[in-house]
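Changelog-adjacent note: as of this version, every example in the card shows the full chain rather than a window. The one below runs 405 residues end to end.
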Amino acid sequence: MKALYKDRRFQAVVAANVLSSIGSGITMLAIPLLLVASPDGNKLFGTIMLIMTVISFVATPYIGVLIDRTSRKQMLLTVELIGFITVMLFVIVGFMTDYSTIHYIILYGTGNLYYTFFYPTIFALNQEVFSKDAFQSLNSIMEIQGQLSSMLAGAAASLVITRWSLQWILTVDAATYIAAFLFLLSIPYKQSSERSDKKQTAMKEGLAFIKENRSVSLFLLLSFMPFIAVMMTNYLFPIYLTQELNASPAAYGIESAVYGFGALTAGILIVSIMKRTGTELAIMLNISLFALGISIIFFMKLLPVYFSIVFLLAFANAGTRVARNTFMMQKIPNIIVGRVDSCFRFITLGIRILLIFFFTYVTANDRIGLAFLGLSLLLLSTAGAGWILYKRKQRKQSALLKSVL
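Full-length structure tokens:
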């Protein structure tokens, strides 16, 4: 791990990730609150989430091909530059006139598109440039720095959302984009010859890997469910805080900081957990913890208890993500990782579209409890299916060992 800390490439990746996460994090905390506060805000926010999810759903297969075909460094630089230009345009708009709902919608949409490009690309870049024996530590450290950034963004948001005008928040966001661009620019990088020698033009290689490794692929798909649930809580929690708990806007920023602390704790502990249990068992333990938390959160209508459960959800989701990313880096060849990863993202986005339809309907009819019930049933089913797959693999390995002996 010490060698990893001294690696110039790692330092640049971490610095870029921290800066862009803080800037965009504050903005993406502020915009949902502004949208929910607008006329018929619950339905509007749900509709926007649905539209952006559909756009990501359509774009994801093409993004996977781009990740495998082009320079991943160049792709990240392009994404950061576009993010900077877009946000700066809205900074200018804010200083010239008042923002309207359409401005909030565009800002939320472009922020979501940024995440859609950035995270799978940085994942593929990390797998490409770092050695296999660094994967566990690498993913753990990336989680830690990401959650530290979220904590800082949440803390900053709780202070500035009610004090700063949006154009100043966006100014900070723009500055972090350009700083992240400069750090990424400094990374020593050469596209691997294996990727350079082949033209990656289709998704079929990614689909072929999934078909040939069905048990592994199904297990990986189940491991995405806590993340899907978190995406849904990004819609449900602002409504739950304002309408069920009658909390102030500052509570949303505090919740983000608590979430970041929970995920940070997971990032610190998950490598030790994986070494004791193995990667797959670590995934299952965290999925089960997440299912438990999401199943009881709606019934605990006290703000301190709510924050405690948010901590557990954050720990479980982050633990699952670090273990899953490590598992994927170990199992999927880098030359096709963009397309395999995009296949999983494509499927999970489809699930998210269906869930957003459901949640938008039930919350528009003031039945948020039904939304939490649906989420609970989904996660409990996921945990059950995951344990079945895990136990089945254990039995096969045990039988194989006995036959060898």
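Structural remarks: Residues 376 and 399 are 35 Å apart (CA to CA).
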